[in-house]
Automatic annotation (TrEMBL):
Cross-referenced Gene3D superfamilies: Tetracycline Repressor, domain 2
Domain HTH tetR-type: 12-72
Protein name, per record: Transcriptional regulator, TetR family
Keyword terms of this UniProt record: DNA-binding, Transcription, Transcription regulation
Length: 197
């Protein structure tokens, strides 16, 4: 370990370094490649170091998910930036969702991993991401209707499409995003105002 590494970790950045190492491992090897030992090695610390910051591998995944949701939110916000028409903003956020999933499939698998939300003591980052979806769906909610009816339908549409695209089900392995399949499925959003009717 270098003197620079020791100094950085001494000042309290070890947890962040381990999270960053975990994200890098996810990007390279997927969820199966994420282990505490590999994270420690990537961060340049002893294999016992993660125990001081995380409650096992599940604790590391929670920390990675928190950072993952922040990155995810940035994708959604950036995609809709400067777009005013409600339907175009909705389409843009969905494209941002797909782009995130194709660029960071490992993070996608962690932030929406089975049972993760129940382990997460502070889900503000996840709530923030959901509120972006909520805001672009809001113009299409019929008066007096539960907003979640449309929000969940839109979320299910783009999340399901993203997972199917990642699995190669459309005959177009990612990346890059091919407009054909995306544009055809996303055209369903043109009817978003009637989904809950």
């Amino acid at each position: 370990m270098t003197a620079e590494t020791k100094t950085t970790h001494h000042h309290g950045n070890l947890k962040e370094a381990l999270v960053r190492a975990g994200i890098d491992l996810l990007e390279e090897d997927g969820l199966d490649g994420l282990t505490l030992r590999k994270c420690a090695a990537r961060a340049g610390v002893s294999h016992a170091a993660p125990a001081h910051h995380f409650d096992g591998l599940s604790g590391l995944k929670v920390a990675i998910a928190t950072e993952g949701f922040r990155i995810f939110s940035n994708y959604l916000e950036s995609a809709a930036k400067g777009i005013d028409a409600p339907i175009d903003r909705l389409r843009a956020v969905c494209r941002g969702y797909l782009t995130f999933g194709l660029t960071h499939p490992g993070l996608l698998s962690v932030i929406f991993g089975s049972g993760l939300a129940a382990q997460k003591p502070d889900n503000r980052e996840g709530d923030y991401a959901y509120n972006i979806l909520r805001s672009v769906c809001a113009p299409f909610i019929p008066e007096g209707q539960n907003p979640q009816i449309i929000e969940i339908q839109v979320w299910s549409l783009i999340h399901g499409f993203t997972l199917l695209y990642l699995s190669g089900e459309f005959g177009c392995p990612p990346p890059p995003i091919e407009d054909g399949p995306f544009d055809q499925i996303i055209a369903l959003l043109d009817r978003v105002g009637t989904l809950g009717a």
